[in-house]
Amino acid sequence: MGVGLVGLCAVLCLCWSAPNVQGYVTDAQEVSALLAVRNKLKDPYKNLNWTRKFDPCASKWTGVICIENETDGYYHVEELRLLRRNLTGTLAPELGLLTHMKILDFLWNNITGSIPKEIGKITALVHLLLSGNQISGPLPDELGFLPNLNKFQLDLNMISGPIPKTFANLTSVQHFHMNNNQFSGQIPPEIGTLPLLKHVLLDNNRLSGYLPPELALMPNLTILQLDNNNFAGTEIPDSYKNITKLVKLSLRNCSLQGTIPDFSSLRRLLYLDLSENQLTGKIMTNRLSQNITTIILSHNELNGSIPSNFSGLPRLQILSLNNNLLSGSVPSDIWENVTFTSKSKLNVNLERNLLSDISGTLVVPPNVTLKLSGNPVCTSANQQDIAPFCGGSNVGADIPDESLEKPAAPSCASQICATQGNFEYIPALPDKCICSAPFGVGVRLRSPSIFNFPPYLDDFKHFIMTGINLSEYQLHVESISWESGPRLRMFLLFFPDYNKSRVFEPSEVQAIATVFAHFTIPGSDVFGPYDLLNFTAKGPYANFDLPTINNGGGGGLSKGALAGIVLGSLSCAGVILASLLLVLQRQRQQSSHTKPVKDKSFPKVPMKMDGVKAFDFEDLEMATNNFRNQIGQGGYGKVYKGTTAEGAVVAIKRAQQGSLQGDKEFYTEIEMLSRLHHRNLVSLVGYCDEKDEQMLVYEFMPNGSLHDLLTAKYTAPLNLETRLHIALGASRGILYLHTEADPPIIHRDIKANNILLDSKWTAKVSDFGISRLAPVSDAKGDTAAHISTNVKGTPGYVDPEYFLTHKLTEKSDVYSLGIVFLELVTGMQPIAHGRNIVREVNTACQSGMMFSIIDRTMGPYPEDIIKKFMTLALRCSMDETKDRPTMLEVVRELENITSMLTPNISTTASAASPPTSSLYGDRTTSYGTMDLLPGTGTDLVSGVIPTINPR
User: Contact, 372 vs 356, CB < 8 A?
Assistant: First the structure.
């Protein structure tokens, strides 16, 4: 009832509006719209107290900024900024009544529902910023009729359906930032008519069809980033070589075919990533842009020799040509005529090709990393000593493992800075020992055109401070971390001018905040567009009003805001008292006429996710022959094989009736699986939620589970190559969950039964019913060490430290995976006849009897490879969390181990038996035959921390 009375008070108070009060919204329609917006949202900080007497424009803390209109003399809402308020709820259609609004900013909340079509009526809108929420449903066509829209930022949501063709009307738009959603269908070729569009970021969606040649018609296009979509059978349009302003072209993992166009005419090109496709033919021989930093063409089917046009590129940071069919000589002149600084590096990855000798004398500078493993040249006795370049292995694209140098320590005594009040030394002035209070800003570079950041640190400072109009010594880049995309997260500290003050004035902090919030820093080819993540206003800035953010804190209003609330409450008191009896009487009448509603067995949740079909119960009943085709059973329920009306073979997981745990698992799994896309995770096809039934429909895995494989369901032996291939696939899937899923996920139930095998024996991790979200980073990039939670999992696989302390970490999954590795190498079960697999293996290894416990059905194997795999398995299954490797280290070590094998796994194995090829296959036939080889299009999505292929 209290909420209803507050709303009644707010509405009744509208009639008392004073005309044109300075700084107040004086349009009753806009006030009612704001109240509707507020009522659709849940506000944990209690800041959205928008009533007529407490006008939202009276305090910038509310997130509403108003301005007097020159035409009608009234004050109207110009900006609605509710960044990081932890808001839930939905967007109200009444937003369309705020027709004078230029900026709509709900970044980084937890808002659900769809985008109201009424937003298309806000003709003044310049920035539509909705990133980092949980918005779903399709984009309304009406959004294509916003004549002034400049920045269209919807990434990191769950928006589905096609990109509307009406977007071709957005003639003022410069930024399409719609990555990490579930958009599907064809990219509309009509958007090629947009005259000002600069940045097209559509990576990590479900787009298909062809790449429109018309995109080359956009005269200002500088970034085209479409990674991790599925343009199967499509070639890269030759017209893209005519996008004269193009700085970055990233088409990684798009199922592209054909040859690479000649991009030598793109003189501004800095970043080219065409990896993880099926591109063929020779590499272009004409010289690329002199300033290019990144060339990634790995995991394709390119042939011929490595051309000379890659040498003498002064800013080149990575040349990745690994996992192709390149032959001839290893070029020895790529780094010639390049002047290296102390911070610059060049990473050249030529692994897993057919390179047979060295051209010239191989003298590699210390700033250069060269990788050659998996080439015939590494086994040739006639070559010079190249052993240092033939060891190790890569994990997809090479990852910048970099950190910023710590600033020099000041020469004066450390106690000179006050311990209270957030005072620090100015890092850029180590000899002056000046203490100041910094103001923190968290940003993320959305699409940088570099691979290593440290060489560009000074350029970055100049870029930022030119936009803010401060001296460069006043900026300190506190931390950097690469994220999927690749995107670069940074935490910046701004220090006051030491000649004037040790603390910023409120107006100075406001100016810095406004520059970032309004995206008025001039554009940069190298650094690209940026996200504003947060402000950190500590010490003397803790009580400053910032119009764009909740100040990094958990609540509290300014004194002026509180006074406004009190006055508003007093003004409405009479109305409340006069209407109290009436409201109570109506509520009693309603309750007396309301019949109780019987609770359903399971709550209904609207799920409109592209690519995930809602099946009728009758559809699945027919698909499974009235649920007669049972193929498995678990704690959740039974699993059936079925064939849909479209002819797709699926596995249907049917919940047991009345299972509360099953209900929770159902909603957890459908939400997670709809957002997870990786070739080593089982794909969700659809679901059914009717007639008190809950069913999940998955792609069918014809070769069952790893547990089936290890428990002699198959008569053919499982050789070492296949075991390592399964281990690597499962590891990549788990690494994707830990580092690339958004948000990151801890599986909690890794076991042999939850590692399934498709028709090509590719391992796929399944069953996310008890998964948990991993800890997330704060503004400075610090991450909680663990999650406290009740222990769940399967006996024998549960992390002992998690079991004892209830502290769940990503390394809990590492432990469980280590048990799976021990099963793979020994054939033993985790717990059998009172024996524990970890204890048994440790005992055998310590007594020198390791080879006595190797699974005898494995066939011949090299002892050094078994030792390495066993060592890794035991490291993963250490009792203490700190002693276990990370998943990234696990994948890298498995890549290293598998690179030591001679690849010769047959790709034609039937579902009745696993591949059984000889471990010592013919080297001359082993290079081009494998789609089972680790590394052929199987790596991580981002290129930042390894690259996992999401299909």
Answer: no
* Token pair 């991580």: residue: 940
Are 217 and 260 members of one domain? yes
| Cα–Cα distance measured from residue 333 to residue 310, given in angstroms and rounded to the nearest whole number | 9
> From CA 118, how far away is CA 153, in angstroms rounded?
17
* Secondary structure (H, E, C), 254-271: CCCECCCCCHHHCCCCCE
Question: Rounded distance, CA 611 to CA 679, Å?
Answer: 16
Number of domains in the chain: 4
Residue showing tokens 């850029």 = 428
- Whether residue 849 lies inside any domain: the answer is yes
In the chain, helix, strand, coil percent, each to 5? 30, 20, 50
Q: What is the CATH number of the domain that holds 181?
A: 3.80.10.10
Q: Are residues 656 and 715 in the same domain?
A: no
Full-model pTM? 0.59
The answer to whether residues 799 and 868 belong to one domain is yes
Query: What string of H, E and C letters represents the secondary structure of 602-641?
Result: CCCCCCCCCCCEECCHHHHHHHCCCCCCEEEECCCEEEEE
Q: What is the DSSP string of 162-206?
A: PPPGGGGG-TT--EEE--SSEEEEEPPGGGGG-SS--EEE--SSE
Asked whether residue 727 is domain-assigned, the answer is yes
Is the same domain home to 901 and 762?
yes
CA–CA dist 276, 265 (Å, integer): 24
Task: Mark which of 260, 276, 292 sits at the end of a domain.
Answer: 276
Taking the C-alpha atoms of residue 533 and residue 544, their distance in angstroms, rounded to an integer, is: 18
Which residues are known catalytic residues? 749
Residue 875: in which H helix or E strand, if any?
Answer: helix 863-876
In a domain, residue 158? The reply is yes
DSSP letter at 378 equals: G
Strand ranges (DSSP E) for 634-700?
Answer: 637-643, 649-655, 684-690, 693-699
Domain around 127: 2-276
**Residues sharing a CB contact under 8 Å with residue 619, sequence separation 6 or more, in sequence order:** 644, 645, 688
Q: What is the CA radius of gyration of the chain?
A: 30
Contact call for residues 80 and 109 (beta carbons, < 8 A): no
pLDDT value for 26: 63
pLDDT digits (tens, 9 = 90+) for 584-626: 344 444 443 433 333 333 334 444 555 678 888 888 888 888 8
Of the candidates 664, 699, 734, which is a domain's last residue? 699
Task: Specify the CATH number for the domain of residue 828.
Answer: 1.10.510.10
Q: Are residues 675 and 772 in the same domain?
A: no
CB within 8 Å of 359: residues ≥ 6 apart:
329, 330, 331, 332, 333
Mean pLDDT of 300-312: 91
Q: Are residues 695 and 831 in the same domain?
A: no
